[in-house]
Amino acid sequence: MAGIVVVFDFDKTIIDVDSDNWVVDELGATDLFNRLLPTMPWNSLMARMMKELHVQGKTIGDIEEILKRVPIHPRIVPPIKSAYALGCDLRVISHANVFFIETILKHVGIRDCFCEINTNPGYFDEEGRLRILPICARP
């Protein structure tokens, strides 16, 4: 299978939901998200939501625990592992952010199956707040 590249979307493909919406909803910020949604681009909105959640005292650990509970279809992990074992080059392309994706993939034990994740960068600043940038920007 060498030379075969398999590309996955992340939200609503590897996981059964949109990871951004999942985190916002599970952390109780849906109303604010819905009010701000018509006023700014998606990445700016998610960056703002991470700021608001940080101000409310939500931590990296809180976000990680939410991400570990994301619904994943039980039939997605075995084929990913099989394709990897056969030597396929697996990649993710997504509008989510790298922290959400890597946290979930590590939790379900398939992060090492993917050689590349093309998505929006994210990093934690000195205050412990998740900063999300558009894919064209770097911290």
From TrEMBL:
Keywords attached to this entry: Hydrolase, Magnesium, Metal-binding
Domain of life: Eukaryota
InterPro entries: HAD-like_sf, HAD_hydro_PyrdxlP_Pase-like, HAD_sf, Pase_PHOSPHO-typ
SUPFAM superfamilies, per database record: HAD-like
Cofactor field: Mg(2+)
GO molecular function: metal ion binding; phosphatase activity
S-adenosyl-L-methionine is among the record's keywords: no
Record protein name field: Phosphatase
Organism expressing this protein natively: Solanum commersonii
